[in-house]
UniProtKB/TrEMBL annotation:
Name of the protein described by the UniProt record: Serpin domain-containing protein
Domain Serpin as annotated: residue spans: 1-179
Family from the record: Belongs to the serpin family. Ov-serpin subfamily.
Organism: Spermophilus dauricus (Daurian ground squirrel)
Pfam family, one: Serpin
Length: 179
């Protein structure tokens, strides 16, 4: 577990029994937002009740308090490969996968091209270097992490989101189930 003490945007959502903390990346263009249910609340309860509208309400600047918080979060790396053909076809991009139907002339002078496969690879790594940039703080001694400031202890399953702050667009989202 990593431990940091800094001012973060933070709120406790009593209706969901969930803490929310925003960890801004350097430059504040992106943020990692973590939703941590109380220890006695199963993560699936939060997931099943979470809507995009609730997420926006909980994470809007007017809802969050910028206060000093001690944040404990595990180091982790998540990686996945996703086959995207069915997703794109469901969105109406059918011709691009059919020889003779695809129009890829803006990408190549070759004719009769089509896509045979579309794979998306995602990697998210949270470590001391990334978290220092996120929090703009220092790694503290373990003894410093146990004083009387409010704390956010992600030692049980949580949800995380990477957000582009200017457009409020979610770029990544995931569930960390085994800290």
């Amino acid at each position: 577990m990593m431990c940091q003490k800094a001012n973060f945007n933070y709120i406790y959502i009593s209706e969901a029994k969930t803490q929310v903390v925003e960890l801004p990346y350097a430059g504040k263009t992106l943020s990692m937002i973590v939703l941590l249910p109380d220890e006695d609340v199963d993560l699936s309860v939060v997931e099943n009740n979470l809507t995009f509208e609730k997420f926006l309400d909980w994470t809007e600047a007017a809802s969050l308090q910028n206060i000093e918080v001690k944040v404990f979060i595990p180091r982790f790396k998540l990686q996945g490969d996703y086959i995207m053909e069915s997703v794109l076809q469901h969105l109406g991009m059918v011709d691009v996968f059919q020889q003779g139907q695809a129009d890829l002339s803006a990408m190549s002078t070759e004719t009769d091209l089509c896509l045979s496969k579309f794979v998306h690879k995602s990697i998210l790594e949270v470590n001391e270097e990334g978290t220092e940039a996120v929090a703009r703080s220092v790694i503290l001694d373990v003894d410093d992490c146990f004083s009387y400031l409010p704390y956010f202890n992600a030692d049980h399953p949580f949800l995380f989101f990477i957000r582009h702050n200017e457009t409020n667009t979610l770029l990544f989202c995931g569930r960390f189930s085994s800290p």
